[in-house]
Design goal:
heterodimer, A: about 450 residues, mainly alpha, 15 helices, about 75% helix, B: about 260 residues, alpha/beta, Rossmann fold, 6-stranded mixed sheet, 4-stranded antiparallel sheet, 10 strands, about 25% strand
Chain lengths: ~450, ~260
């Protein structure tokens, strides 16, 4: 039986369980004056969950383990004795036999896979039947067990509540486990990298040229300082020079000066900037801003200006971040109690004096927190720099020169042909780990700052 | 000197003042005089418009976009709603203390120095020091804070914060001080200190105080205005209002029948 049919069958049994339990619960409620703890539908859900959930869990586990069982069975057949020893050939013959057995392909490259295919098909069928039988058995057993408990005094309501809680817990654990898994794989690959390249070479080396790596001393050409500097320069310096003043000023205008009607149409338009896909910013940076910046640089006499300048990428990144800074600043300014503002106005201060001397100092921690979050976003931003920044790592202070960033290098290292165990490829994981740690720290600091500030006014 | 004893000088006059928020009328046709050396108390049940009226006296209602004020309010004979009235100047002359103490999140010194700085009242640091000390002394706070002027104003107790706000208001040497229920967030001891302070400041500044507390009105004011549903029901000497009100509604309110 196919997996889909089995799935529907199990769900169908669940539905039947729901209906019968409900009917039964309705019946014992009828004519009774006692107050019951559970509604008929709770009994229904209780039985339905007992019917459907165990077989579903079983099927999930089964689908992960059965391919190995099937392969084991095939390997124990006499034909499998002719297989080459474990290695690439063996694996490809087996996977070919499996495709043949499942009818996904018809031609075979290895003769042996043709001989193995029938036993594959047989094993597969046998295990499918076992799975179906076990699933149905579980469904009936669970359903029957639950059905016997449908009695007037049974608290199906609290049982169902507990299952709901467990499901929600499971959902949140999946997100956490995924994060843990990602971090673990980053750590593992990075550890492999640092096995080959000393961590000090990577963190403090100033020469980055992953395309030409000296096999005897790979660390010499994998010094990431130019990347860190480029990332910092583009994301935390140039982008913030654009984003902080404009974001802050627009927040001040929107919270303090704009009439409610103006605010009503202006704020969504500003926030639309945040909804523009970063790839579009990438075009904009690469096709419009970068040439303009170069032409400008040439016109003021910097003839060697790069068309992949740090300035172009940073400017566009800054524009992208404006709504972010603006909305964080907006929140912080709005969180300053209006009594502060009134107090200052009542002293005869003008609006701008009130903002400069009272509101901004009071909102400063929140604004700083927002800016830190914005920085962490900017340095993790990829698309703009992939399209607009250069691939050449230079350690420069000149905004018209070409620089590269961590994210851009990760993309470069992992695209194209690469072996998965060369220092060059593994360097991408080390860079990813560094970026992850830095943005994580920035986020923690920023959120703490913002939180402490919120508490001060509550 | 002898002349002013008998002839009170009118500081502020309001004639036929009405205030509307959008289409809702909050104050209807109120006329009141405030004398130079008097404390005037506004009393009345919640929502009667007494705070709204107080805020028209230094144009704090300007910050509410939907508020519309009609009628005439004069400070020393000058219409404060006329186009040539500078709001900044007006608020320097008519200071305000709010219901909840609202010191700025700055040091005690900076809180008091705020007004003198924005109005350019002090040239040198020494001048500013003198103004800060004088204001804090007048507000009865100097002895408590003189050794920690650089501490944050928000770290003081509620009553001290409110006296700091009074010091902040008098630092710009206003002519009138408006107080919007200045003691409603304070405990009885802090309240007593503020009331004592109002007594001491009387004569130096004209004062208008909104209060929920009728005993407080009786204790600190010379004149009392009773507001109800946006109208001024009765305005007269405090002693008359509390012992011999002309209006039935006033009598009911001060004897606790409603409000």
């Amino acid at each position: 039986m196919s997996a889909i049919a089995l799935l529907f069958l199990v769900l169908g049994l669940g539905l039947i369980g729901w209906l019968t339990a409900r009917v039964r619960a309705t019946r014992f409620r009828a004519g009774s004056t006692v107050r019951f703890s559970s509604l008929p539908s709770h009994h229904g859900w209780f039985v339905a969950l007992w019917t459907a959930v165990p077989p579903l869990i079983f099927l999930v586990i089964w689908s992960m383990t059965s391919p190995a069982l099937v392969t084991d069975t095939v390997l124990s057949t006499p034909a499998a004795m002719q297989l080459p020893p474990p290695g690439f050939d063996r694996a490809s013959i087996l996977s070919e036999a499996r495709s043949l057995a499942e009818g996904r392909s018809f031609g075979a490259f290895h003769g042996l896979s043709r001989t193995l295919a029938p036993s594959y098909a047989a094993a597969q069928t046998r295990y499918d039947w076992i799975a179906t039988a076990l699933a149905l058995l579980l469904a009936f057993a669970g359903g029957a067990f639950a059905f016997t408990r449908v009695k007037p005094g049974f608290g199906a309501r609290t049982q169902v509540e507990r299952v709901v809680m467990l499901m929600l817990l499971g959902a949140s654990l999946i997100a956490i486990l995924t994060t843990v898994g990602i971090v673990a794989s980053l750590l593992y690959e990075s550890a492999r990298f640092f096995h080959v390249v000393p961590i000090t070479d990577f963190l403090f080396g100033t020469h980055w040229s992953p395309q030409v790596i000296d096999g005897r001393d790979p660390g010499a050409s994998l010094g990431a300082v130019p990347l860190f500097w480029g990332t910092f320069f583009i994301g935390a310096v140039i982008a913030m020079i654009v984003a902080i003043p404009f974001g802050l000023m627009s927040a001040i205008y929107l919270t303090q000066y704009a009439a409610p009607t103006t605010r009503k149409w202006m704020k969504p338009i500003l926030e639309m900037l945040a909804g523009v896909p970063t790839v579009v910013y990438g075009y904009f940076a690469a096709l419009t801003v970068a040439p303009a910046v170069r032409d400008f640089a040439v016109s003021i006499g910097i003839s060697w200006a790069s068309s992949e300048s740090a300035l172009a990428a940073g400017l566009v990144m800054g524009i992208m971040i404006i709504p972010f800074v603006s909305s964080m600043a907006d929140d912080s300014i709005a969180a300053v109690p209006s009594s502060m503002r009134d107090g200052s106005l009542a002293m005869g201060a003008t609006s701008s004096e009130t903002i400069r001397r009272v509101l901004l100092p009071a909102a400063l921690p929140g604004v700083v927190g927002g800016v830190l979050l914005a920085v962490s976003r900017a340095i993790g931003e990829t698309m703009i720099v992939v399209m607009a920044a250069s691939g050449v790592a230079t350690l420069t202070l000149n905004p018209f020169a070409s620089t590269t960033t961590v994210t851009k290098q990760i993309v470069d290292l992992l695209t194209g042909e690469a072996e998965f165990d060369s220092p060059k490829t593994l360097a991408a994981f080390a860079l990813g780990l560094t970026l992850f740690v830095v943005t994580l720290l920035l986020n923690i600091v920023a959120l703490r700052v913002v939180k402490r500030y919120r508490e001060a006014y509550e | 000197m002898t002349k002013s004893l008998k002839m009170p000088i009118l500081k502020m006059t309001a004639r036929n003042v009405s205030v509307a928020y959008g289409s809702k009328i909050a104050i209807n046709n109120v006329s009141i005089d405030v004398d130079q050396d008097e404390v005037v108390a506004f009393i009345g049940p919640s929502g009667c418009g007494k705070s709204t009226f107080l805020r028209t006296l230094n144009r704090m209602n300007d910050t509410v976009a939907s508020a519309r004020v009609t009628g005439e309010i004069k400070l020393d004979g000058q219409d404060i709603y006329s186009p040539d009235m500078d709001v900044v100047q007006l608020r320097a002359r008519v200071g305000m203390v709010f219901q909840k103490p609202n010191p700025f999140p700055k040091s005690i010194y900076e809180n008091v120095a705020y007004g003198p700085r924005i109005h350019g009242l002090a040239g040198a640091k020494a001048d500013l020091d003198r103004i800060v000390e004088k204001s804090l002394r007048r507000a009865g706070l100097w002895d408590e804070v003189k050794d920690r002027l650089s501490d944050s104003g928000t770290a003081l107790s509620g009553g001290q914060q409110q006296r700091l706000c009074i010091a902040r208001a008098i630092a710009v040497d206003p002519e009138v001080i408006l107080m919007d229920e200045p003691c409603s967030a304070l405990d009885p001891i802090a309240t007593a200190k503020i009331e004592e302070l109002i007594h001491e400041l009387r004569g130096r500044y004209a004062m208008v105080i909104v209060t929920h507390n009728m005993q407080q009105a009786a204790r600190v004011s010379q004149k009392t205005a009773f507001f109800h549903l946006g109208s001024l029901v009765e305005y007269g000497n405090t002693s008359d209002i509390f012992t011999n009100p002309r209006e039935e509604r006033t009598k009911d309110y001060i004897t606790g029948r409603y409000g």
